[in-house]
Amino acid sequence: MTPQPLFFRAGLVLLSLLPLAGAGSAAAQSPAPDSLQGLRVALDVGHSLQNQGAGSARGVGEFHFNQATARVVRDILTSAGAHVVMINENGDLPDLLRRTDLALEKQCDVFLSIHHDSCHQKYKQKWLVDGAPQEYADQFSGFGVFCSQKHPQAQLSRQYATILGHAMLAAGFHPALHHHEAIEGENRPFIDEAAGVYEYSDLIVVKRTAMPAALLECGVIVNRDEELRVKTREYQEQLAKAVAQAFAECLSQGVLQPGSGARLSPTPRGGPVAPVSPPEDKKGLLRRLFERPQKP
Question: Of 1, 70, 5, 3, nearest to 246 (Cα)?
Fold first, then answer.
């Protein structure tokens, strides 16, 4: 299990962490508006209008939750000094490879894909919403963070994902652990169980990106109560501040470096993506990252 990083270092604490209803609270901190100055963030809105992802307990497509939360994350990161490149903001880019290409073209230093979670079909129950049958599973809740060992900078991605998971914990959120269950479609290995960080080797947007990459499941929308919570501005802002805090810690530890995206070179579509020169930690291994297409 990866030890928890020290998040509240002098000069790198980002934003006040406000109490979050139903998720605990964190101590208030003074903002540091320039903490993310120079960092270029590719912020991917998961799924699309064409394929909206998981359905919520009330029948709303996941994409709409992803879009709303990503916009709040963008605003918080921008206020902290980051330059945010929104990818698929309007749901009109179902092509996952094009999303990773855009992050490279825009010389982004880090990639984060925003999603909301579901669970295995066997756990879902039926109920009626406005006379229409829907499915729910109230026994699961919380966040999850995913990265890929097949990423060209796998070690940096793992460090980044772990820091993000611990930032979520520090902000009062709790991890969803059901993706580790030994059943078909789950069985994801833990990188850090306490922080809800998983290995998901063939998840395209965290495997084929050139820069360190992670996917954040922001909450479980088949849970009837959590579906309502994740829609609130308070929840979204608290989560966004945790993301910003994680980026600040990544900069502190040298996991992320402003301007590193400008040193990444493009390769043919579908092939591996390699840096022009190795990153400072020299732990990234060039691997074939793409075996087969994955639905957005």
Answer: 5
Q: Classify residue 149: in a domain, yes or no.
A: yes
Helix (H) or strand (E) holding 103: helix 96-105
Cβ neighbours of residue 293 closer than 8 Å, sequence gap 6 or more: 96, 204
Contact status, residue 104 vs residue 264, Cβ threshold 8 Å: yes
Model confidence at 293, pLDDT cuts 50, 70, 90, reads very low
Residue 292 lies in a domain: no
Long-range contacts of 175-178 (CB under 8 A, 24+ apart): 175/142, 175/143, 175/144, 176/117, 176/140, 176/141, 176/142, 176/143, 176/144, 176/217, 176/220, 177/142, 178/119, 178/120, 178/140
> What's the CA gap between 21 and 172, in Å, rounded?
9
Residues 167-196: what's their mean pLDDT? 95
Q: Are 27 and 17 spatial neighbours (Cβ–Cβ below 8 Å)?
A: yes
Q: How many structural domains is the chain composed of?
A: 1
3-class secondary structure, 128: strand
At 191, is the secondary structure helix, strand, or coil? strand
In a domain, 283, yes or no: no
Estimate to the nearest angstrom the gap between the alpha carbon of 13 and the chain centroid. 20
State whether residue 241 is helix, strand or coil.
Answer: helix
Q: 243 in a domain, yes or no? A: yes
Domain range for 264 is: 40-275
* pLDDT band of 18, cuts 50, 70, 90: very low
How confident is the model at residue 185, as a pLDDT? Answer: 85
Spatial distance between the Cα atoms of 33 and 190, rounded to a whole number of angstroms: 34
